[in-house]
Amino acid sequence: xxxxxxxxxxxxxxxxxxxxxxxxxxxxxxxxxxxxxxxxxxxxxxxxxxxxxxxxxxxxxxxxxxxxxxxxxxxxxxxxxxxxxxxxxxxxxxxxxxxxxxxxxxxxxxxxxxxxxxxxxxxxxxxxxxxxxxxxxxxxxxxxxxxxxxxxxxxxxxxxxxxxxxxxxxxxxxxxxxxxxxxxxxxxxxxxxxxxxxxxxxxxxxxxxxxxxxxxxxxxxxxxxxxxxxxxxxxxxxxxxxxxxxxxxxxxxxxxxxxxxxxxxxxxxxxxxxxxxxxxxxxxxxxxxxxxxxxxxxxxxxxxxxxxxxxxxxxxxxxxxxxxxxxxxxxxxxxxxxxxxxxxxxxxxxxxxxxxxxxxxxxxxxxxxxxxxxxxxxxxxxxxxxxxxxxxxxxxxxxxxxxxxxxxxxxxxxxxxxxxxxxxxxxxxxxxxxxxxxxxxxxxxxxxxxxxxxxxxxxxxxxxxxxxxxxxxxxxxxxxxxxxxxx
Length: 487
Description:
Blueprint: E1 2-6, E2 9-13, H1 20-25, E3 41-46, E4 56-60, H2 61-75, E5 82-85, H3 92-96, H4 99-106, E6 109-112, H5 118-128, E7 132-135, H6 137-151, E8 161-164, H7 171-181, E9 184-190, E10 196-198, H8 205-210, E11 214-215, E12 221-225, E13 238-243, H9 255-261, E14 268-276, E15 282-287, E16 291-294, E17 297-300, H10 301-308, E18 314-324, E19 328-337, H11 343-352, E20 363-366, H12 380-397, H13 425-442, H14 450-459, E21 464-466, E22 469-473, E23 480-482
Parallel strand pairs: 2-6, 5-6, 5-7, 7-8, 8-9, 19-20
Antiparallel strand pairs: 1-2, 3-4, 9-10, 10-11, 12-13, 13-14, 14-15, 16-17, 18-19, 21-22, 22-23
């Protein structure tokens, strides 16, 4: 470990061989004696890039000076603060909300870690008596799991405040933090483009658990718009629109994107879906581009993810879209679980939570870990790629040859209790496939396809036996009529 002093502040870099003392002591060759104008660009932040190429966000000295100082006031950052930065250090959240720059401004100490894993961070917190740190929700899940698996929270006694941001924290996880990690929770909702929201340290617990706070600046203008740009009443979910003294005015060298990202009055549309209550507290519902359009019905991924996290066997959850020729999109839930969990159990659990049928995951996949972006968010682009590759492989391996209509085998050819595979196996396989598909659809797994399957069965003049009663399904309705002999 190497430690460097910045006047009255300290930075300890963990897991690096960079000679910080030498770098700080060496004078700059291009030193400029005159001060830089406060409204000039200090540096460029990068947009998340989760839906395309990241864009450059110009931020001025004024932006960050105000943002850092105001964040310090809200978060109680002082010279006594010892901050663990285990997230990407140049990311807006870990750098300035209030982050490392805020702690340096207050004269406190910053400890840098290579990653937010419990195995690395817990000993660092104990060794350096860390009292403030910040995480993203997936890292919170890992910490809670480590504590439950036997690590305990004894090494976290010095921790006073845990900030969580970067993505919405589910109320289920939020409620566990004070008791299991043993510190106060502060929710943070911000963006590299400017706007930052915090829950206050003296907010009621229900506010801290269930909301993402309020704008930090009295001059921040935030409202909710519908898909046509019209204002929505308090409490309704819509697009976040904002402008303010420290929010940017446009992406660098990107006029086409700016034309769609800002309205005529200069309000920035972030792509976040939020609701604002009567007291001005924001609840994040997800990202507009993260919605799944299932045959015209909209599914908010974060809503289902947060409900899935209530299941005792689920550690992490992510809901993504998958292509469907009939509905346009369906949903797939990726789960990291403590024990095996079948798709039917997942759907039953969600039904018990009051979830509408169209919102139930069409597919459930269990994985060891969820892929993350460099800033610690779930990489849903990668999940969709996995899903597409899996679907292509399954389509190739499970393809059934297209055959012309055939007459149903006679009783001798197709006994009641079994299929005689020695007699024209392709006919028998196609019959069984059709009937399996029909019964899956009949019980609601894919009701939109039911009419098509029933029509195919009628076309093939197929029948089946239920409790030894021959049943013939018609294409016009889900009815059944007993028959004395096969068709």
